[in-house]
């Protein structure tokens, strides 16, 4: 169910939650089509990311997709110890979701293990054999190939009423190449669309 939460269009999501008996085969075909569309980030515009937010009772889920360049400064497989260190640092920063998304402490939200996906995260730092293999695949990629980062978070909040807003100011400070986040939100007020930036980083539910 959680996987469907972010890959289905939000209108379809609302219907599927209310109609648990819905045809799963039909829903799956829609999910697959939307997943392909979502993962492409439109035209893969550097500086722009996408964020889906859903608050349902005490469950808060975030799905963030971004060109790798917004976070790492490059989109190819790491080619040096310095770039591998950047990948490791960014992975660590992405795990600090409570800070990145400015989740109020009063909400008492507990984060499950986040899911961080990117072709650039595949090789373990310091594993030279893995890096050689990675370098070979890098040459196989067509010119102009773009890579992305996909981060998914699931929080269980003991005081969800305290979740009046998220403040993504820290996210924009840590990843200044991220100029805008196109947000789709489902919360107590229904479905909303927002565009966040460093100057306007607060997301109200």
Automatic annotation (TrEMBL):
Highest taxon of the lineage: Bacteria
Ranges of Basic and acidic residues composition bias in the record: 126-145
Region named Disordered: 121-145
Protein name in the entry: Zinc-binding protein
Leader sequence residues: 1-19
Alphabetic keyword roster: Signal
């Amino acid at each position: 169910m959680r996987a469907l939460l972010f890959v289905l269009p939000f209108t379809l999501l609302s219907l599927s939650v209310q109609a648990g008996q819905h045809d799963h085969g039909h829903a799956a075909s829609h999910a697959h089509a939307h997943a392909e569309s979502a993962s492409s980030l439109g035209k893969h515009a550097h500086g722009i990311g996408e964020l889906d937010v859903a608050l349902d009772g005490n469950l808060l889920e975030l799905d963030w997709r971004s060109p790798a360049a917004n976070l790492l400064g490059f989109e190819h497989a790491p080619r040096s110890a310095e770039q591998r260190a950047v990948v490791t640092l960014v992975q660590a920063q992405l795990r600090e979701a409570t800070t990145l998304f400015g989740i109020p402490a009063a909400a008492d939200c507990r984060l499950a293990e986040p899911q961080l996906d990117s072709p650039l995260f595949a090789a373990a730092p310091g594993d030279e054999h893995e890096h050689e293999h990675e370098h070979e695949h890098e040459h196989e990629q067509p010119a102009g190939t773009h890579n992305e980062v996909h981060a998914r978070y699931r929080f269980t909040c003991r005081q969800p009423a305290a979740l009046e807003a998220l403040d993504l100011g820290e996210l924009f400070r840590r990843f200044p190449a991220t100029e805008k986040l196109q947000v789709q939100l489902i919360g107590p007020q229904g479905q909303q669309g927002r565009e966040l930036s460093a100057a306007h980083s607060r997301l109200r539910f």
